[in-house]
Amino acid sequence: MTPKLDTAGTLERIFEMYSRQFGVLLPAALIIYLPVGILQIVAGGSLILLLLVSILALVAATLFQGAVVQAVRDMQDGQRDFSVGEIISSAVPFIAPLLGAGILAGLGIGLGLVLFIIPGLFLLTIWSLVAPVIVVEKPGVFPAFGRSRALVKDNGWRVFGVLIVMFLITIVAQQVLIAIGMGVGDDVGRGVGYLIAVTITAPLQALTAAILYFTLVGLKEGGAPAAPAPAADPPFPPVPPSGPSPFGQ
Mean pLDDT, to the nearest integer, of 232-248? Predict the structure, then answer.
């Protein structure tokens, strides 16, 4: 029987890595999201510029997700070998497939939430590992969705629990920081508040997907414990070699 994901242990691991590696994660988030924050300040009430802000934010989120997956992969041996610039640049080759997958997942999840809510939450859960799969295994966009579902299978409720906890934490933090920024000044305050909020919270969201991926791969294919002990900051379980991987059932 497949070992079950340790929900509490996974959350602990996310915050443990966040606290240990914020010196890399926060600067990377600031660099990637800085153009979005600047454009948001300039946009004001312009619908065209606000549309550009949304597009640029999607690109930034895609690049940052790839960067964090590469960072977590790099730190499996317990050492951080990459600089901020190297981690960011290592994710650039994956922008196109990550964008494509992000758009498809966004459309599917958004439609599911609008129509019936439950299907949207279901898709959100089973597709939560698409980005790490694309970066680590390089199977292509469409196979990545099936691979993500196979990894989440048998641990759906536990994965959903981790996602919900992290969503609530990040959304509350973002709303508070943006509200503080808007209290200082309308457009400028909103842009600065957004930039501070996303710099602090984006690493948590990206770490969630990356750590869930490596942990579930270990549980299903590596025989590793569900949640590494955070005290020693041990490596994650072995990751399959680059290239398409057969879907687990």
Answer: 42
Residue 87 and residue 23: Cα distance in Å, rounded? 13
* Neighbour-count burial for 87-113, b at 16+ CB within 10 Å, e otherwise: bbebbeebeebbbbbbebbeebbeebe
Q: What is the pLDDT of residue 147?
A: 95
- Six token digits for residue 185: 């000044």
For residue 221, which of 200, 183, 249, 190 has the smallest C-alpha distance?
249
Query: Which residue type does 44 have?
Result: G
d(Cα 236, Cα 226) in Å, to the nearest integer?
A: 10
pLDDT tens digits, residue range 21-60? Answer: 888 899 999 998 898 888 877 877 677 877 788 888 888 8
Would you place residue 233 in the very low, low, confident or very high pLDDT band (cuts 50, 70, 90)?
very low
Of 212, 213, 178, 197, nearest in space to 26 by CA: 197
d(CA 133, CA 136): 5
Phi/psi class of residue 243: alpha, beta or left (left: φ > 0; alpha: ψ in -120 to 50)? left
DSSP state for residue 128 in the 8-state scheme? T
The residue type found at 51 is L
pTM given for the model = 0.81
> Taking phi first (over 0 means left), then psi (-120 to 50 degrees means alpha), and beta for anything else, what does residue 98 get?
alpha
Closest alpha carbon to 18 in 219, 207, 146, 228: 207
